[in-house]
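Handout, section B. The chain below has 140 residues.
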Amino acid sequence: MPLNDAKLRLCSAQVLGNAADEMCTDTLDLGMTSPGLEGLGPSWGLHGIVTTTFTGLAEGCFLSIIHSATDNLSAASVEHTKMFIPVASLVAGTHFFVPIGKGVALSRYIGGTFDIVNQVATAGAMTCWFGPDNDVGNEP
């Protein structure tokens, strides 16, 4: 039976990129500052699956892990790790994984952002969650 913990899910089929840069709907409360996840390095991080193919983007986007000391994550939150995704890869069914960067402590609250490059999308959605890299087949 696959692991399916909705508490690690940040958004489900959320429309992203139709405005400027956007954050995932939810955040994850780690319960404490510097919980040690950054020591896991590339084995734990932010997952994203494109649920609706993105159109209207010229170049692509950055999928980023952000963190903050408060549960009010915003554009002012600290960016922890990010990955560029070219527009040609933003097609339905594609899975992305952004690993937690090693050596940089996390604040208590973490989330994900979708930062577009240049034009806004006319369509596109993703489901995002945090989890181990080896969690293939256990998507929420």
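Note. Confidence is low (pLDDT under 50) at residues 136-140. Compare this with the example in section A.
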